[in-house]
Specification:
3 helices, about 0% strand, mainly alpha
Length: about 100
């Protein structure tokens, strides 16, 4: 368990798959939509922290720096996921049937 995150066990994943009524594509789309929403939420919090820093209204500098850092790391992760997905899509386009 790292920073409050717990990796799901294989049994948890199998149970989740068994309970899921959506197809793989729909489930992936929902997870992607959720992840984008979380990244957006972190970006909004980061912008608020930067605005508070600029106006001098910051109460806890450490929390503001943490919010900015989390938003930056999550945005980099989302960009890497996008790049991997685009590369996979291009590779599929080059595949001959």
């Amino acid at each position: 368990m790292i920073n409050g995150l717990k990796a799901p066990s294989t049994a948890d994943l199998l149970n989740q798959k068994a309970k899921s009524n959506t197809t793989g594509g729909e489930a992936f789309a929902e997870h992607l939509k959720s992840a984008i929403g979380e990244v957006n939420e972190l970006q909004v919090k980061s912008e608020g922290a930067v605005a508070d820093l600029a106006t001098g209204q910051v109460k806890d500098l450490h929390q503001a720096a943490m919010a900015i850092g989390k938003a930056e790391i999550n945005m980099k992760l989302m960009l890497e996921i996008r790049n991997k997905a685009l590369n996979a899509y291009k590779e599929l386009g080059r595949t001959q049937l």
